Amino acid sequence: MTLEKPVFSDVHRFDSSTGVRIYRIACDAFPGLVANIYLLLEATEPTLVDTGSGFGEANAQLLAGIDKVRTEFGEPIALADIKRIIITHGHIDHFGGLAALHRKVPQAEIAIHELDVRILTAYEERVAVAKKAFRHFLQQSGVRADMLPGFMDIYGFSKKNVHSLPVTRTLVDGQELDGLQFIHTPGHCPGQVCIGVGDVLLSADHILPEISPHQAPESIMPYTGLGHYFESLDKVGRMGGFDLALGGHQGPIKDVYKRIAEIRQSHRRKLEKILELIRRSPEPLTTNEISKQLYTHVKGFHILLALEEVAAHVEYLYQHGKLTIANLDEYQREENPPLRYAVA
After folding, report:
1. Domain with 19 in it: what CATH number?
2. Closest C-alpha among 171, 63, 68 to residue 116
3. How, if at all, do strands 33-41 and 193-197 pair?
C-alpha cells in the first residue's frame, strides 16, 4: 500500500489594531514562486484573501494551512466556515485556486474590484481579447514572425484549465466592508486592490518587500502601465497609519512608506538606463532589442516578463516626451510594423 505524501503549509499570525487576526498561508504558486493567502478572523465573517494558483499542490497547501490555523493556533475554524473570498487582482497566481475552493464552499461570497470582474465572470472572453492584444504587442515590439507562435504558447500556458465563476460583490475604491478598507491601486493589474485592516495593509502585488512588482504596458491592458503604477504608489504613500504591510509574495514589510520610495527609485533608475541605452545606440531600437540588451540571461516565460517590463518603461518614456518613433513613415504605411525608438 502506498501512503499519500503529507502536505505541509507555512502559516504565520499577525494582529491588526482593530482586533482582526490575520493568518498568512504560503502556497507554491508555480515552480520558484510562492504566493501568500490570508485568512482573516474577527472581520465579522471568516474571510480568505486570494486563493493561490490552483497548480500543483497549491490547493492542498491552502487546505493544510487552514487546518494548521485550527490545530496549532487554536482557532475554531474549518473550510466550511469561510463566508467570503476576496480576490485582490485578476492574476492567475492569486485566483487560480478559486474554482476548486468554490466547489467546496459554494456559499462563500466572492468579491473582486469592478475592473477585474470579467476576469472571473467572462474568463474565456478576457483571455481571447488579451491574446489578440498581446500578439499585436509582440509584433510592435519587434519579435520575429517565426518566434510569435512559441511566444504565444508560453503566454497562454498558465491561462489553461481556468473557467468563469460568479462574482457576488463588486468592489470599488474607498469602499469599506466590515472594517476592511479597499484601496484601488491599478498599475500591476487593472483591478488591483490593497486592503486596509486597521494598521495593517494587505498590499497584494502592489508593494512587495524585495522585488519591484512586474509591470506591463497599458497598450496591452488598460489601467496597467508605469504611469498608473506610480500614481497608485503615491496614493498609498499619502495614506498614513499603516505600521505593517503584508504582500502577495515574500515576507512582511515593516516600513511600507520607505519601501514605496525604494520601488519608485528602482523604476527611475531603470528609466534612466533605458534612455541612456537608446541614446548611445547608433541606430533606433525596438523594445525587443532593448530587452535583449538589458536582460541577457532570461529564458522561457521570463523572456516575456522582461519584454513586458521594458515595454512599460519605454511606453512611459514615450508618453512623457523623452522618446520619439524614428520609423514614423513605416508605421503610417504598414499595418503593424515594429516601432523603433530614438531619444526625442
Report:
1. 3.60.15.10
2. 171
3. unpaired
Domain with 194 in it? 10-133+155-265
Residues 162 and 297 grouped into a single domain: no
DSSP class of residue 165?
Answer: -
pLDDT of residue 157: 66
Domain boundary among 240, 265, 290: 265
Q: Which cell numbers in the block locate residue 169?
A: 460583490
Q: Tens digits of per-residue pLDDT, 33-61?
A: 999 999 999 978 999 999 999 999 999 99
- Count of domains forming the chain: 2
Measured distance CA(236)–CA(234) in Å, rounded: 6
Task: Return d(Cα 214, Cα 221) in angstroms, integer.
Answer: 14
Strand, helix or coil for residue 86: strand
**pTM for the structure as a whole:** 0.94
Work out the number of other CB atoms within 10 angstroms of the CB of residue 88.
29
Which tens digit of pLDDT belongs to each residue from 189-224? 999 999 999 999 999 999 999 999 999 999 999 999
Percent of the chain at pLDDT > 90 equals: 87
Residue 144: Cβ within 10 Å count: 11
